Queue: 2 jobs
Job 1
Amino acid sequence: MKLPLSWLAEFITFPKGFKVESAVAAFVKVGFEVEEVINPAEKIKGPLKVGTVQSIEELTGLRKPIRYVGLDLGEKETRFVICGASNFSVGDQVVVALPGAVLPGDFAISARETYGRVSNGMICSSRELGLGEDHSGIIVLGSKFKVGSDALEALAANDPIIDIAVNPDRGYAMSVHGAARELAMALGLSFKDVDRKTLFAKLVKSKKSGKITVAEIKDKDGASLIFLRSLSGLNPSALTPSWMSRRLSQAGMRPISLAVDITNYVMLELGQPLHAFDAEKIEGKLKVQRAGKFKSLKTLDNQERKLSAEDLLIADEKKPLALAGTMGGLDSEVSESTSRIALEAAHFNPVAIAQNSRRHILSSEASRRFERGVDPTLAELASARAALLLIEFGGAKYHGTSAKGLAPKPTISTISPDEISALIGTTYSPTEITKALTAVGCKIVKSGKKWKITSPSWRRDLLHISDFAEEVARFYGYERIPSTLPLVKIPKSGKTGLTPLQIRRRSLSLALAFKGFTEVHNYPFVNQTQMELFGFTGDRAKTFKIANPISDQSPLLRTHLSPGLLETAARNFARGAKSVALFESGLIFRDIKKLEKATNLSTSKRPSAAQVKELYASVPFQSLHIGGVIAGEAELFGWWGKGRSADWQDAVAITTELLEEITGGFEISSVELAPWHPGRCAEFQVDGKPIAHAGEIHPRITAALGLPERTVFFALVLDAIPVRQPIVSRAVIPMPAAIQDISMFVDESISAAKVAQSLRLGAGELLESVALFDRFQKSGEKQVSLAFTLTFRAPDRTLTGDEVSALRERAGARAAKECGAQIRS
Amino acid sequence: MSSAPISIEPAEIEAIKAQALKAISEAKNLDELKEIKIAHVGDRSPIAKANQSLGQVSMEQRATTGKLIGTARANINQAFDDRERDLILARDTKALVEEKVDVTLPVNRRHKGALHPLTSLRHEIEDLFVGLGYQVAEGPELESSWLNFDALNIPQDHPARSMQDTFFIEPLDAGLVLRTHTSPVQVRTMLENEPPIYVICPGRTYRSDELDATHTPVFNQVEGLVIDKGITMADLKGTLDLFAARIFGPDVTTRIRPSFFPFTEPSAEVDFFYNGRWVEWGGCGMVNHKVLEACGIDSKIYTGFAFGMGLERTLMVRNGITDMHDIVEGDLRFSRQFGTGTR
């Protein structure tokens, strides 16, 4: 909301020397962010003076009318300038920029020769001075000023505009009048309200008999009241007074025509949107109603809008006239030929206007005000004010008003003033509370500790103790609130600090960082092409689609961390990285469970247990993954020699290390799973459930992304890994270990992990560890040679050679039985 | 064995000693010293021989001569030991000198890893509040629009709903959105727990802003929620002061000023003064009684405060990051600057 200081001054008497900075600080103090302060006069530099036109010489023989003008600037000699405008005569006072002046847009004025004459300056238009849009002619000053005096003063151009942001609960401040009331309160100055009585009396006095258009509210939910004032005899050539068009420009609205300008002016001034209809275009009554059978309406912005049956309209007997509170219709608009006007001001239901605006994706000055709530008593006042302006400046005659509906009764709340201090945490005396609430416009009736408060018509949001507390705290400034710390109490659930899952995510992230991985945060957005490239099938192909994505390039939610991490790896390569190791932890999204639909939820009380259950089941479970990629070398090259390219072992090793950190044990097996290489992917399981995968990325994908061959990737499903119970420590055995080696042939289809497990089970409890120390497969052969070291240790004695070789035999026998191993030695 | 007694002159002993000491001192290395040992110290050396012939010395002279020979032998042995020690030290020192390397050579064979600074910042904030006794709560990012909006006093068609540019999920009637703030976690916490509630909710949030130098459609927030008996706006202010001091240092100044949020009343914006200017940090206020009631908490018994701020903005201001692209693009050079901390 753009507020010229001069306009605010109509409602507040500022002290002498009042600075705009004080107004800015005051607005911020009571909760209005100041976007900027604009002062076009600050962009004008150098001599700008009032001059009287002494002579005009019309230059002839040129393509356009050009005048050579003699000016009295209180100088010894007459100053002559060239001027392209013709809207002035001898004796008029004009604004002259002298050589040396710089106008907005770095427009430097100098003496120059043009059209065969010497021009010693420039006579200025509003636009040239940055004070308005008008460039149809130069500025002719309305009154007589001293020649040679500062023209900025004569123009009252030094008028800073404060642009404030108005929050949705402060719709009452979307007007100069409403904002001025807040500013006066914040500055402790008195507010000069509009004198309604005098204004209404003046209008009644001017009433002349004539035709009246009748209003009707057909949809009582859509509007609570309407004032329709009928006027005629509008002078089609009447111009908007310059002060009014200047203010419209200052507030950021374009002057259009007198009738439209007046409705806009009154809206900016008082906050009530108004609409002026060409009364000749209205057939029968003017009605507030839902669109119903009306199918379309061409609005002022020249758009043919398809109407929804629910749209709230202004219509007549035959056709829609306007989208109520949102935008007028093109056909019923006042035009150059309009002489009869029906001036409408209504109080619409904010929700109905919000819906109009949302359905038609049309946010207007009017709809923004109605959505935020307009003072219901304003329709009468604003329409009267606008009618008087039409009479005064348009020569119109007023014939009377058709008024329907009633303003809702003011709200009355009962509060205990002590609760205000209790909520804010500092003491406000009853006198202070009374002063603050009165300044806001409340009327207070006290009976002991209970106060009955009538909220002002423009503050229908003041209902609850917290609403009044905010007003009091705001009035005295939030800086008065002290700084204390609550004494934290441990909740009944006993839950405090981080959850085991949060601790797990943290420790694995740190572990990966120390292992050389750099963390990235990728957007979780993917597209169908990526999903297909990665080859996701089954659950991992089922995702959610964003209805309004920023870019159609990626409207889907990720079902896996790999697309983001591999794309980011590729981006790093594109920027010159030679090898990268990246990781990410985050949620993934899979549309795999039928979701409930939460229904009939109220917000006035807690939903029932069944509703909460339904509500929770309406949201898909989103699993927390941590994943990483190494592309290129796992160990880097350098002066010491070659690096070592990453391969499946790196992924499996890291995954193993991470899982050893958080699980009590897991199984590994080979699996075919996208996006991994079909023969180089390990699946890790706990209790038969997959919890992690690691291996080399499918060469089709690395090729498509331009990543090195054998780029490796791993992913752990953090929330699928059971939380480990506290570890029960085993005593460290000081007895010596007995070592036995065993080697064998197995078929290549048998995994080393399976053989190790058989050996473990066969060797029994005295086995401390199994370690593979050799693996060999002759090319073309189906048999693999494996050699393991078995380490035995007994808690109470030194094991004999006979004992451990017997155990080794048993281990070998089990491997032979379960894995078809042929023991070699 | 009855030959005539012999006499060994002291000068003779002195000469043997002098010769031995000279040879020992001239030994250049341990090999030479080994030779010298045989010639001047061992069983066949002149001094050993002199000692062996002591039996032939007359009884009157034997004690004196024996003493002379013993002293000379001790001197020779001592000189030998000293020389041997010196030569061993010299040999070892030389060997170590030869093994000297340039320890300034680069040795970065392994990748250098790092946490994303947003993660470290999040840990820092979590640690502060965990230390105060708060719980850290998280929730889904794909969220029910009822929890994201309605329960927070943002009904359909309320202008506040359009303040937040929401990503909606198809089909629209499923009521799913990408959460626009972490506030639905507050609602879930209130639905699942009875007061007292002391919780912070960090996490990822979404709004349909284009990525530019200061905006990103995917960003992080941390919110705080306290519900207990007698909680005041002063408690909110104190908590924010502590929070700001932890993140920006003890000299930071904060201020709160009136604002509007549907889920708080009174509402405020919190700013901090940093590097010579006021920076908007986040929103806060006393939890709106309508929100408490929608979650089944009796607003006549309990009051509470809530606050929320963006982690990206906090990080950018504190660590001098001028372009959001650096935070979201995943270029390793960015995160590596910060290692595993953010200071």
Job 2
Amino acid sequence: MFSSFMTNAWISGTVIATLVGVVGFFVVMRASSFAAHAIPNGAFAGAAGANLVGVNPLFGLVVFALGAALGIGYSSRRTRSDVATALALVMMLALGAAFLATSNEYEPAINALLFGEILGVSSSEIVPVLVLALVCALGLGVLYRPLLMSSISSELAVAQGVNVSLIDVAFLVVLALSSALAVPVVGALLTFSLTIGPPAAARLLTSRPHRALACSVVLSLLTLWAAIASSYWSNLPIGFFVGTFSALVYLVARAWDVTRRRRLAHVVA
Amino acid sequence: MVGTDLLKVEDLDVSIAGRMILRDVNFRIDHGEFTGLIGSNGAGKTTLLRVILGVQAAARGRVSVHGQTLTRSNSSVGYVPQKVVFEPDLPVRVRDFVALGLDGAKLGFARRSRQNLELVDEMLDAVEAAALANRRIGSLSGGEQQRVLIAHALVRKPELLLLDEPLASLDPGSAQEIIELLHSVVVHQQVAVLMSAHEMNPLLPVMDRVVYVANGGVASGTTDEVVRSDVLSALYGHHVDVLHVHGRVLVVAGESDHAKSMVADHPAVIVE
């Protein structure tokens, strides 16, 4: 499991889980789960298109994920956000289907794009993955307080002088980049389970924003590491394990929260 | 500082999507005054507050604080919006939320100074919410959340506090507590309060001045100057009676040709 050919999986998995843990914290805070589902599908179409024209799939992933994010951001100012996101999603899925139908990809490669592949990041892509993750982390670090404020209440943030439109677009760009990094490993269809499950669980475990953010990263790392190991041993797609473990992490956190509330209510009574 | 103009609204017209919402609005607010912004739903109260806050552009006119044209995110002005929905699971304590009133617009991470943390505690004390400091904000009742929103707005030490219908959806007991709290803020912190409401009676004991919004115009002055049949008839464009019953004021609609002629001559009424 720790042999040399798995090194890329552990490195890229660790970087992706850390980044997605932070991004997911804000996705859940901002109720942007639908965008977190739609953007990886945009990335999927990009990878399919890149394969078709023979360029690095990471390039296609980044370009199409950014296109989807900016399209959602632009359209959301003119129509309902969920409608804009749904339209971006179906357009990207349609493009992906067309690219795959036109290309000579083997079925395993298509499955890997959709459901994940622990060997999805090649050695040559490790450095670009690290650089993009660093860019995202820096962006989130700079935006942290206005992003947190606008996630709690955009109206209050505007009143405090936060340029909420700019924050919205900047966050979508970070979400796009993190999705582009996650899709080759976790798969387009299940990337968003990692973006939602651990962060949603983290907010049940602590009432402090900084701790919830840290907890989200830890749970995300544990989920992805466990998924990589399980995929290695079982030969099943990693996306299956990421989706299942993400849901389990949330269910355990919810059960803990319910138990804690009942105990508190009992003490008060 | 009491007695000098803090906020001055002059010749203000506001239109949204080509529709005139407010026209020829004029009024002023002094330091340490409690002003009620009264009007029915849809009268334009929220729009007026948004213009004062600098997030809604005016078609004409000027809004100034201390004689300086107001810019967006002016730290002299605090704001409590009409409705903020906090999810029960939101991982933000009351203390964190109030602290974001201080630095929520600043870029980057920063460890909060002891001075700022003390300021947060001071504001929570001022709104009698110190006991709630470590609770999740989404777990509070409506009245408790209003107190915390007021602390969030006051923590930057504004001179003017704008509140958009803070009593909406509160039970009468909680509403009365919020009014008393705001009156205490006006008296002890010398913060001017401009608070919108569609019902003026709960505010009568504490209101120094009223800005009455109806039919696209406003009438402003003391309650006795504004809440009169002739002034409100001119504002509404038809006859209204103002009845005083057991210390409460009732504004009752009626018909009068005289009122119509008054409106034609005076589209906005200012009583100063």
